[in-house]
Fold these 2 entries.
Entry 1:
Amino acid sequence: AGADHPHRPAIHFTPAQNWMNDPNGLIYHDGVYHLYFQYNPEGDRWGNMSWGHATSTDLMTWEEQPLALPYTDEEHVFSGGIVFDEHNTSGLGTAEDPPLVALYTSAYTDSSERPGIQAQSLAYSLDGGYTWERYEGNPVLDIGSGEFRDPKVFWYEEGGYWVMSAVVATERKVHFYRSDDLVEWEFLSDFGPAHAVGGVWEVPDLFELPVDGDPSDTRWVLVVNLNPGSVAGGSGAQYFVGDFDGTRFTPEHLLEPGPPDGEVLADFEDGYGDWEVVNDLDGTGGDGPFGTAPASGTLPGQQEVVGYEGDRLVNTFVGGDAPRGHATSPEFTIDRDFVNLLVGGGNKPRTGEGGHATVDLVVDGEVVRSATGGDTEHLDWVSWDVSDLAGRTARLRVEDDATGGWGHVLLDHVVLSDGPAAGLADYDWLDWGRDYYAAVSYNDTPDDARVTMAWMNNWQYAQDTPTSPWRGAMALPRQLELETVDGRPRLVQNPVDQLESLYGEPVYERDRTQVPASGLDLPPAEPGRPYQVELTLRPGGAGEIGLRVHEGADQATVVGYNTAAQELFLDRSASGDTGFHHAFTSRSAVPMALEDGGVRLRVVVDTSSVEVFAAGGRATLTDLVFPDPGATGISVRADGGGGSVEDVTVRPLGPDPSGA
Ligand code: FRU
């Protein structure tokens, strides 16, 4: 590792060559952790889906094995799980030599007898997972769907049967099935749609965990991966905590998206409603030649300015000299505590360049609130607390500041209510960064530890990441636990303990240090060598304080805390090579209150990734980055003065690449 390409991670699994996506078939068996994965044996983009294979005894160092399940003319081998069929319930082994059984999705090709169908199939191994036979009676579960995939199976001890979860992706549903022999499957129930539904549901996982370490008080956790529509944009993983009674999963904390009952000010169901829409096509500030826009998205011969698309109001500004448009709502009285908007768009805020397309709340000619959507692919609720404006008369205005570049905002609903809307940031997420997808857990781990792996990537740009001759990496394996946070059980996640076996001697330790105005420089990293930074960031009077890693003259990845927004963020907008895809540049954030004035961070930095474990693992943020190999700087900076850091330890991870 490390030698063939500067972006090759040192402590994260990558295949020697070619494309990889989801982890599959995670199982600990005979002292070996198996990692199978979605793999293209013939290229560095998605296709020819097969199961690759790697093994490890410590979850940190991996040995790639020969291809486990190759695609055929009839089927591509999509994601799935593996169980150890100890009592040979399947009959595919013998009592003395019980099999490992893989349940995977057959994605049938046009040259098969089931073109376009996705169904669940079996393969088995009698040599501990190194070579695999397909079961002759495949598929074992076919519901006639083209979107039925990603089986994950476990032995349900209380009932004495196997349970499978699988998704019907486009319906945003998880289906549960039971079986006595892994071959015949009986439908139990389904779950969904719920919480985030701005994309398809994929790769489900259901498991039980003690709450606060008490084995007599357990909950079931259902992980549902989602693409796109995650909290940070694109692919991500949400989870639900609840009960599984052997038939049905019941979450104990379910939110209705959107505001509580309220007064709908606009829904755009029939066009603009009574909003005034003006497209200033001649740039004079008044009505352009088209005056009030037609009720269609694009104006003749022009880029879209203000338009109506589906049941949404759209404002896009394109190019420096393009005309601008705006839309204004009728006046209304602020007689409730919240104004809620369903908004999307906002490419420019992501890149930090150019102008802004915004939705503004205007009172007496002044903009008092302003919103932009986070993603062009999905809309999310924004809530403004307007209790300080009670009784005032207001308008909403959708506008572009026309200062160049690309601005885009979508507005779907406006609702006045007494409480805030539930949006993506209110749901439970495994990770709040951009690159943590297809998360799924190991079966049969020692001490029943719940260990997950995930593909460290995002379908938005996964095919374009600048690495060669491989493409795709796994995030660090994590151990999951349930801890009571703010009155209900939630997942806390930390790197598995085995990471400590890679610890080098600390190169920097400090109890407490003020951050000078010029910044606090820590010793630079060794080129190509991963490291871990543990520290507490204390903003004090600073508006923002941030740990900067992979820092060079013109680049850094920033893990920071913003005091006004009360959020922990991961900003890779100037992290090095960001230009290979327009959606790559990003700043992601998780809402988080300070504890005793600080936030404790554990940050693992590899050549092309940054993983943040915050507040003991209560929130995590994972991002890919592609910095210059020479960008080895590490520093802390605070703006506005007054920040400090506490209990800082920096140490290298893994072997010294120079061999010293
Ligand atoms: C998730 C996914 C799965 C599917 C696999 C195909 O990333 O789309 O739903 O089984 O990848 O490679």
Entry 2:
Amino acid sequence: MTIPAPIALLAELTHRCPLSCPYCSNPLEMVRKSTELDTGTWIDVFLQAADMGVLQLHLSGGEPASRRDLEDLTRAASNAGLYTNLITSGIGLTPRRLDALEAAGLDHVQLSLQGTNAELADRIGGYKGGFERKLAIARDIKERGLPLTLNAVMHRQNLDDLDRTIEMAVELGARRLEVACVQFHGWATKNRAALMPTREQTEAVKQTVAAAARRLSGILAFDFVPPDYHADYPKACMGGWGSAGLNVIPDGTVLPCHAAQSIPHLTFEKVQDRSLSDIWYKSPAFNAYRGTDWMPEPCRSCERKTIDFGGCRCQALAIAGDAAATDPVCVKSKDHDKVRQLLDDATAREENLIYRVNP
Ligand code: SF4
Ligand code: FES
């Protein structure tokens, strides 16, 4: 098969973060500051990515503003011709840093929103005063005319607040709202029982997003990640393994997706040891689940196999115990009853939030 060049690179600059969100999808074992890539190595990664044909660079974390060299990294990426998107909680940004980032060529900001009021947002984020600081930085972003997307991770504890979330996105001048229902990877799996949306919430969120997208057409665009445990078919995770994007984590390990390190039999290489291009095109880990040849039945003979690529490999491992299995979310999966069981267990219990422990 012909392997396409990646379109997007997610650069997890650091796992350090002032917030402690229970829904964090970063791994349980996070990378410490002492093993983070230095400025020069990150810049080399960006240059390699641009050479490969990558168009979009997502500067992420943890909280990328925890890196003092964020402005230098942004400038280098912009000079390399990459479209730069800063994925941030806003904590650690100041008007002065925003000015410097804008001067460095930052193209877009994606600001997370944990809730629509201080009580809820600060409780979910585990950071007192975070909501007010976030609102202030959202205004600063708007003042500068930087395109803004609000990213709202939605779950059982804030889904009933979706209407207000949408209003806030409009008030803050966001161009897009990402309504991202929680995905259970990494730390978030500890909080499945506390965060799993109910069936009623799942139905309501679809209708609310569809109605708001019609009502606000031309004002606010929507990206919607539905709660897939309630779905009949899985999502095309990462648009298919090794087909559209790659992640580089703080210590330089290159991954096909956020949770790939949970698959124990795969070995992931580092940018310090091999070129990004070699890793993308030639490494066994990136080729393990590329395309459709690796698929078992029922995916192999399914009409949706080039739509969802058999779903999420990490979810297949976590629920079915086999990364090469059909994603158990799929109604055709022999393990689908395990998803039903997980749903019933999770929504039947009220659990306290378990906050992320920072490295
Ligand atoms: Fe997707 Fe496989 Fe289910 Fe078909 S059987 S819908 S390819 S996960
Ligand atoms: Fe790894 Fe979906 S998160 S394939």
